[in-house]
Amino acid sequence: MVSKFYINPVKFLIAVSSEQFSQPTLTIGMELANAFQAQATIAYVEPPVASLYADGMNMTRETMEKWGIPQPGVEVLEWAYRFIGEAGYIENYDSEIPFQQSKLVTKAQHRELVLPSTFSDKLRLIMRQGDIIRELRHAVEEDAYDVTIIGASAQRKMAHDLIEYIDSSIFVVNNFNAELDYNLLVCVDDSERTRQAIRTAAVVAEALKMKVEVLTVSKTTRFGTGYSNAHQWALDYLDHKGLPHRGIKRTGDPVETFINEQGTDKILVMGSSSGSALKKFFRGSKPQQTLEASKGPILIVK
Amino acid sequence: MVTFKTRTHSRLLSNILYWIDKNRWLLIALLAGLVLNLIPTPGDISEPGWRTLSIAVMVLILIVSEALPLAGVALFIAVAQVVMGIADSAMVASTFMSDAVFFIMGSLMLAAAIIHQGLDARLALGIIRITGNKTSRIMIGLLVISAILSSFIGSHTVVAMLLPVGMTLVRYTATDKKQTVNLSALLLFSIAYGATIGSVGTPSGGARNAIILGYWQDLNITEIDYLAWMKYVYPLLILELPFAVLVLRWVFKPEYNNLDSAVRKLKVKVAHSGIMTGQQKLSVFFFLLTFLGWITLSQRLGLGIIAIAGVLLYLAFGLVSWDDINRNTNWGVVLLFAAAISLGVQMRRTGTALWVADNLIGLTGDMMAASMPLRDAFIMIITTTMANTLSAAATVAILGPININLGGDPVTAGFITAISSAFGYFTATAAPATMIIYSSGMVRSKQFLRAGWRMGLVSMALLMLVTMLYWPMIR
């Protein structure tokens, strides 16, 4: 437990899409939430319905409810409920008691079920409908989440939208294998958010008992003062925290090197870009390119 | 304190970029309209005609991209017509309301009233009593009942009633979805395809049918009534059903050929609903009365007034509350269809429809004018393509006046437009019926194309056959 680090509880938003694809996201998301005694919200965002067919959809939902058939979104929430219940995150969880769809409370923008958590004062399951980025953005705006945890998407534009439009740190759970012992690989340079990324990595490493590797990549063989100082600061900080770590300096293309060093058993941690929004809109950013190319989990710290 | 996030200082630029990003299609539509209005008007079309065309282009982009809510698109059509000097506000207001719009509105409200009666359980019992336990017979039962019902009360109502029946059968067969991939597809696609095929059968089957009837009346082309429509289209509907059975059984070979246990459980489940209540009998009676009115009185009263009278009966006898009707009627759709019809009227009045039609004929080197089958095939392909990306009714509202002006028999052109706009087989989102079964989460998007292209081609071939062989016989 690392609650001593915090004055305010950390808030995690864990986005799930289906039983088939979201198991790793929920596993690591809840592990982190538990470690940080965070307020966790598990969200399912139902795809938007073409407004031309809205009346037909409403009628169908009403008849389905009458027949006792849960909507696909409710099925996902039920699966998430069972999953975290079996993992011991719900107080007095009883697998024999059926999931009650009727207990979902309808709020202005979503439906929700508040659960008694074993590790914090707030654990919620919520269901929203609409464009995924728009809905996650609104959820983060409404409840001021610190981290949004989400599975990887094949859509290229998703990386840009997640980083630029959602006002929280983003943890993309790409090819996460719960059987593996992961370490953290922190990408360090002279950018504004690097220190924040290192601090966050330290907290995560302590919480999940991981080793930290500090990676600095220069395009040329000469490492500038900014890069060298940032690298040294990271090592000193981790030393001070008493966390096992090692420093790596490499020369080459930064994004390519990050990906190569990440391999299959490291969670990449990097600060978000502090460049102009306009530049990032048209040309992207290093975190965005890394997120698009990475084959493993990646945490972008804001 | 360590946090995961530094709150950013100024997010104004980021928010502006977000707005631009999420509203890019709205901006593209406005830009397209601006460009069309800035370039010189071609000599052979009037100024108002060219401006009407620019509105049509913007509307197409807005509907396909859903950059604005449907009701917003409808309001845009009204405002643009007046602001761009195509018609004054009184004329625009009058073109927004017609019997066709009453009919669309009345049909949607009737559907909401019927769904409220809880006839779904009774329907389920009826179907399995006739079909028995064999999967092949159950799918035929679902397909045929879905087609017949949707021809009178619209596809989305029928799917809303039958989807829980299909889903319950699948869920009672096996709890693991992986064991029923094809069975799910077979039963759910039978419901959706039946509803789609049936929706052209009568004028009340879909808004598109009412729109075409409205255009024929406005242009004094023909006075086709409810029964005459059925005479033209029902044989095609009947012809399509066996082909749908073949296509679906060929593409989705079910994992279970017998649904004994599921049918038994379903019977127990629906048996709880008891005998038919007085309210349910009355609601069926009122629908039959409305149907009779459509057949016998539509020439005198108009289809729309009869549909609204039917709704009035349901309300007066307390069979449905206004709240229920209000909740289940998509007023945005009603407004959009009214606006699309209004735009269609302006396209005809300003000569836009004729200009587009002439240019299309010219593009084919006048081959279309010389060969009627070629013209019919052209109408069918362009309408099917557009309806698979746009809504069927909006397609008919915009393409209707153009297709009717493509030369040859305007009645044939109108029927082909209405019917082929229902061939929404190619994607999950092409038609209300397919969209609804997709939203159940029990069928996959790639399955739509697997069965859809076959069904689409078969339907187009059958429509051509009916156009060339059957319709000339009954004209």
Write up this protein.
The complex is a heterodimer of chains A (302) and B (475). Chain A contains ten helices and twelve strands. With 302 residues, chain A is an alpha/beta fold. Chain A has two domains: 8-151, 3-Layer(aba) Sandwich (Rossmann fold), CATH 3.40.50.620; 183-301, Rossmann fold (3-Layer(aba) Sandwich), CATH 3.40.50. Chain B has two domains: 21-95; 119-272 and 351-474, no CATH class. Chain B is 76% helix and 0% strand. In chain B, helix 20 runs antiparallel to helix 21. The relative contact order of chain B is 0.13. Chains A and B meet through helix 2, helix 5, helix 6 and helix 9 of A and helix 1, helix 6, helix 9, helix 17 and helix 23 of B.
Question: Short description, anyone?
Answer:
The complex is a heterodimer of chains A (302) and B (475). Chain A is an alpha/beta fold and 302 residues long.
Provide tags for this entry.
heterodimer, A: 302 residues, alpha/beta, Rossmann fold, 2 domains, 41% helix, 22% strand, globular, B: 475 residues, mainly alpha, 24 helices, 76% helix
Secondary-structure map with pairings?
The complex is a heterodimer of chains A (302) and B (475).
Chain A: E1 11-16, H1 19-35, E2 39-46, H2 54-66, H3 72-86, E3 105-106, E4 111-115, E5 123-129, H4 132-143, E6 147-151, H5 156-165, E7 169-173, E8 183-187, H6 194-208, E9 212-218, H7 225-241, E10 245-251, H8 254-262, E11 266-271, H9 277-283, H10 286-293, E12 298-301
Parallel strand pairs in A: 1-2, 1-6, 2-5, 6-7, 8-9, 8-11, 9-10, 11-12
Antiparallel strand pairs in A: 3-4, 4-5, 7-12
Helix pairs in contact in A: 1-3, 5-10, 6-7, 8-10
Chain B: H1 12-22, H2 24-38, H3 47-65, H4 70-83, H5 89-96, H6 99-115, H7 120-131, H8 135-153, H9 155-173, H10 181-198, H11 207-218, H12 226-251, H13 260-271, H14 278-301, H15 303-316, H16 322-328, H17 331-349, H18 352-363, H19 367-370, H20 372-387, H21 392-404, H22 410-420, H23 432-439, H24 445-474
Helix pairs in contact in B: 2-3, 3-4, 3-17, 4-17, 5-17, 6-11, 6-15, 6-16, 6-17, 7-8, 7-9, 7-13, 8-9, 8-10, 8-12, 9-10, 9-13, 9-23, 10-12, 10-23, 11-21, 11-22, 12-24, 14-15, 17-21, 18-21, 20-21, 20-22, 20-24, 21-22, 22-24
